[in-house]
Amino acid sequence: MTIVIKRFFRSKGHQKILLFFILSFLFYQCTPKKNVIKRNTITAKSTKTNVLNPYLIVYNTSLDSSRLYYSIASENILYIRKEKLGAYNSSLEISYYLYPYGDSKTIIDSSTVAIKDKVRSKVSKKIMGEIPLKTLKNRDYLLKIVIKDLNRNASIENKIYINKTDIDNQQYFLLLKDSVTPIYENYITDSNSLFLASKINQNKTLVVKYFERDFKIAAPPFASVNTLPFDYTPNSKSEVKLNSEGIASIKSLAKGFLLIQSDTTNQKGLTLFKFSENFPKIKNAKGMITPLRYICSTAEYNDLLSSPTPKLSVDEFWLTKTSSKDRARELIKQYYNRVQSANKHYSSYKEGWKTDRGMIHIIYGTPTLIRRTPNSEIWIYGEENNLISLNFIFRKRDNPFSDNDYKLERSSTYKSNWYRAVDTWRAGRVFYGY
């Protein structure tokens, strides 16, 4: 593999018959359905669907510099070859534009990086790299990143808020798998040791707070919800000392989440979550039961939870919804693909399927259109500005543990539509909101 990087302009997936379907799904790889907000980004849009899906993260390496890290799966990039027996080639461009936060007209800095990959046979890998940024202390920025797949003629735009005012925020920390490779998600899936980097805190001792909480799933979109205040008392505390390069090894956790802080007088810092070994995928029957809460009765749900044979109980649940083997197969595939997609894109301080956006995504599917601002998302099912279209408004919440926490503006007007959607699933048909 050869990657060539070149710079331009200014610096910058109890019935034996269904058991087969269940087991088949547990090995099915879920394909992301759209480009959505990644960790510490505030907006994303794409010219085409199901392409690129980059992971991006900004790390403030000092008071006057930052780095943009990127990772793109090769299966999301189009490789072509001009000759029948020739090599496969990809061609990407990553452009960035740095603005003062609140001023979308003044470009402080910009650059384009060309990335070319050449392989003899198609393989699954990550195209990764980093781009240095000049950012100053006590200033906040908006970073716009445009990634183009030139072979596919497709692009995606992301915007990331860079916080250089508050030195306790998560962008002054970077999680690493092997002391080199960044972790782009805010959750981990294994129990291996990790590395923490924070150059601004080199030789300092940081506090690690451990929390174990059981968060409830989202209430229906028409229900009244009373949000209880979070108890910030950790289950336990420990310390980690960074070396002279600002790096330390930290232990993983079995369940719950860690808050790593340089200053314990506030709730800011880096948060790391551990939901399950296979997260965001669904790998066992028990994991298939809990997301069914949105479409089953209380009695059904309790029977599923208490069943001594969960696989057989999940089989029976879906078989009661349809007598068609093909339809049952499609129901299982579609429902749990949506669950896995919700886990991947909407996880915050709890699993994505439990969140407001995850609930709507599972029941209604992918919106026709998403309108985003720095503090909200509007999901539109149907034509925009059409009175019969269904709109859901999500407001971003100030959450010290996650910048991906959005709350649905609930309304009684959703009630009839919600029950129609749930009844469609229970009648053995996949529901689409548009």
Structure, explained:
The structure is a single chain. This protein has 434 residues and is α+β, with helices and mostly antiparallel strands. The chain has three domains: 1-13 and 32-165, Immunoglobulin-like, CATH 2.60.40; 168-274, no CATH class; 285-426, no CATH class. Helices cover 18% and strands 32% of the residues. The protein has seven helices and 20 strands. It has helices spanning 16-26, 285-289, 298-306, 310-319, 325-346, 356-364, 415-426, and strands at 2-8, 41-46, 55-62, 65-73, 88-100, 109-119, 126-133, 140-149, 154-163, 174-176, 194-197, 205-211, 236-241, 247-250, 256-261, 270-274, 369-373, 376-381, 390-396, 406-408. The strands form five sheets. The chain has a six-stranded antiparallel β-sheet, with no helix packed on it. Strand 5 (88-100) and strand 6 (109-119) form a beta hairpin. The longest helix has 22 residues, at 325-346. The radius of gyration is 23 Å and the shape is globular. The two termini are 43 Å apart.
